Amino acid sequence: MINRVLLFIGAAVTILWGISHLIPTRAVVKGFGTISSDNKNIITMEWIVEGFALIFIGAFVAIVTINDLRNPVSTAVYLLSAFGLIVLALISLFTGFKVNFLPFKLCPFIFIASAVLIFIGWIV
Question: Is 112 a domain residue?
């Protein structure tokens, strides 16, 4: 039972952080000031892609947890999701963490927390 709770919390945190990426996209792009249309499109694309990737990871974890958390496919989803979140945390640590904006500094910790919740939920 506790394993499902941990897995659902890890999934929910990941989904909510993904949604929180999508909401301010326009404001974030505006914050870059006067830049080319290409650069605006690239920044917009990257923010949307990260948001949807996080939502996808969280949703995938939640869906396999609802169905059967002890089959080989579920195990693969949990391990790949935790690994992917750790990779995103490292990327955020070496890039976004240097930015003087609190949400960027929170990303590595939120990604690691989600990965740990998913991993522990899988192990328990």
Answer: yes
Overall pTM surpassing 0.85 (yes/no): yes
Range of the domain at 105: 2-18+48-123
Is 97 a residue whose pLDDT tops 90?
A: no
State how many domains the chain has. 1
Two structure tokens written together for 36? 């080319």
